[in-house]
């Protein structure tokens, strides 16, 4: 074999080795990119789940659990049932009691416009008079949060 052939073979081997090195480096970059993509996808999934959880929490705080309407400072003021701490819109508390319930309670308690009102969520009883709004304190924290979220 001539020295030219040996030089050509040597050059071809060097070129092949260089190409194999480039291929290996490309494989490593592809693997690193795949790993990076998986990490990004996991982070994206975590962010999506956190966002969904925050939205559920926000809804849980800003919505009346009975009628699912958002609280506001005008006609859907969040009030809490002191016996248990549940919060709802006053109208929803009062809707739990029918006229018949009021009559039965009034006869039982022998007082006009006084009756036992169960919390719609846990059924704890609060003795109330017909004017509901003044008997349920405003849940100031929820109201402030609702006002801030409305902006």
TrEMBL record:
This is RING-type domain-containing protein. PROSITE patterns: ZF_RING_2. Residues 1-24 are annotated as: Disordered. Residues 64-123 form the RING-type domain. It comes from Caenorhabditis tropicalis. One of its GO terms (molecular function) is zinc ion binding. Keywords: Metal-binding, Zinc, Zinc-finger. It comes from the Eukaryota.
């Amino acid at each position: 074999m001539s020295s030219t052939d040996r030089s050509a073979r040597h050059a071809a081997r060097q070129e092949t080795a260089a190409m194999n090195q480039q291929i290996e480096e490309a494989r490593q970059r592809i693997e690193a990119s795949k790993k990076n993509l998986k990490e990004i996808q996991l982070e994206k999934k975590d962010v999506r789940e956190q966002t969904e959880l925050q939205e559920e929490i926000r809804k849980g705080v800003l919505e009346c659990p009975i009628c699912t309407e958002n609280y506001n400072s005008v006609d859907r003021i969040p009030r809490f049932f002191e016996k248990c701490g549940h919060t709802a819109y006053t109208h929803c508390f009062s809707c739990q009691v029918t006229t018949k319930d009021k009559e039965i309670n009034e006869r039982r308690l022998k007082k006009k416009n006084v009756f036992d009102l169960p919390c719609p969520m846990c059924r704890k009883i609060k003795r109330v008079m017909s004017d509901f709004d003044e008997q349920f304190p405003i849940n100031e924290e929820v109201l402030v949060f609702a006002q801030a979220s409305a902006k």
